[in-house]
Each structure stands twice: as C-alpha cells, then as structure tokens.
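User: Here's a chain of 236 residues. Predict its fold as tokens.
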Amino acid sequence: MQYLNEARASEDALVRVLQSQIAMTPHGSYRSILETHLRETRTHSARLAERLKTLGQGAHPLTAVVGFWEDVVGQALALSKTPLDLLRGSGGEEKVLKNAKDACATEALEIATYTAIERLARSLGDEETAAMAASILAEEERMQQRVLREIPKLTDAVVRADLKGKPSYDLTTTGAADAAREAGASGRDAARKTKAATKRTARQARKVPGLAKVEGQIKGAVASGDDLAIASLRRH
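Assistant: Prediction complete.
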C-alpha cells in the first residue's frame, strides 16, 4: 500500500506537469503524445486509487495520513515547477526540448516504480496488483519510447530557431502564460483545501494507538539550530 500510495501521488503530480507542458507545446506530434499520456496518467491514478480502496486504504487512519501527505507534496512540486518551465531555455523550441528531456527522466522513474510494484506484488501473491502494475508499466515504457523518438525533431527545431534564425512558433501563443496563471490560482486553492484537510486528517490520526509516541519521536529527530554544521546558519 505504501508503494501504491507513492505511485498515485506521483501520477497526480504528473497531471499538473503535463498540463503545463501541453500549454507550452505547439500543435503537432509531440503535443499529441503529451495529450495522450495525460489521459493515461489520469487513468493510472484512478486505477491506483481503486486498488488502494480494495486493499483497505482508509481503514487505518495512519495509512490515510501517509497517503494524504504524499499527495500534498507531489502536487506542491508540480505547481511550483510550472512557472520555472517558462523561464528555461533561450526560446520556445528549447523550452519544449528541455521539457521533453524531463519527460524522459520522469518516465524512467515511473518505469522503475511500477517494476518494483509488480515484483513486490508477485512476491506477496497479489496477482491482481501485479497485473495492474504490469499494464501501467507497459504504457510508461511506450510513452518513454515515443518521447525519445521526438527528441531529434525537437533538437532540429532548436537549431533552426537559435542558430539559423528561423523560429517555428511563438511561445506566447501556445497558452503558456495562461497555464502559469492557472497554476498559481490552483496553488492558492490547494493551499486552502490542504489546511482544512490537514485538520481532519490530524484528528483522525490521533485515534491511532501509539501515534502520539511516534509523533514525539519524529519531532525529536528534527535537527535544531545547534545541530547544524555551519555556524552561520544557526544565527539566521
């Protein structure tokens, strides 16, 4: 369940990243690939959520706490990444190329994640979870191969734009600015929802036997100012 929660949080965060990248990408083969994978990613998240429900997600308050915070962290990272994507590279073509390289790295991580989930599930005799992981894994591998095939074409577009002065499109016309504004609004809305959900989850978690003791141990493990190796950081 821990591995499935991590995978679900990753898929939910990837939805935001894909939305921002699609907004920055001109119509064509690469954008179509991103749009297809956005639909797949939403389906992956739904399948994981359903499997977690079947396995008893939510029956144990502590499990709910862990899953909740993994989702919050993943969404925060995705929302913070959107404005940064707009600043990278010398032009629209290079921004899209950098995003495509990021996509390859993301797919590699997801491939490793679902490979581990499938192996773990089979070792535990959970064939249904293993089959689900194998199905999602195949789609992640297919996505990575599609993106890799686009890299040469995207690189050629950078050469034409930056070295030959023949840009293929204007980044401001692809909706990237709108994506950044939407990300900011979504971030504020998510913060409000997170605050309310945190209170509910905390109340639920307090019902778990021994959680208060564990919470105290975790707080005690956090480094204080005197623990920092760099003296100047303690002063600040």
